[in-house]
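Fold this sequence, please.
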Amino acid sequence: MHPERAARARDTRDQARAQRRWAAWLRGVFAVWRADGQIPAARLPASQPTDEEQRLAAGAAGERLVADALGRVLDDTWTLARGYVNRRGEIDHVLLGPRGLFAIEVKNQNATIDCHGDQWWSTKYDKYGNLVRPRQQMSNRQGRSPSVQLNEPAGQLEGFLRPRGHPAVTVGRVVVLTHPRAQLRSCAAAPSRPCTCAPPYGKSSIC
């Protein structure tokens, strides 16, 4: 990895920490991992019977990458819960520590991503930039985009905590793109449902 890119990622992370911008700091942590090459590419078995099994295997691999990377860089003051579920859906990771409470949605797709509010699309190119799969909507079986998948259960979690002694709690929301060839091409925020998108190689945006 280019040393200048790694240095820039570390500077951005450290500035966010000094300014107590914890969501930006968490984005910076992911950016440093990518720039230092600490998260290896996830590889699927050579043959998968179905596309659905391949998708599930890729998702599980991406979640393991994030959990392993968090375990390497965060100390025992942090707690990571995997697969938190409430009536509005599932959050891949819930991270609690001295910097706050964060909900993390993991996407392990080899694609170029565009999003506008709660509408997400993915387009696949080969390593030479040739189109392999035209742009298609990015959603789960329920038709929910990554930001909706994250925001709905995160909002439910906030609503659960507030009447139980945590009235000021805010859940930071992060979508992490773990595939080494994933790219975030464009992203425009939905004002009422913000989340942070942390793609590979130090790029970041609000989506």
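The chain has one domain: 3-206. The chain is about 35% helix and 30% strand.
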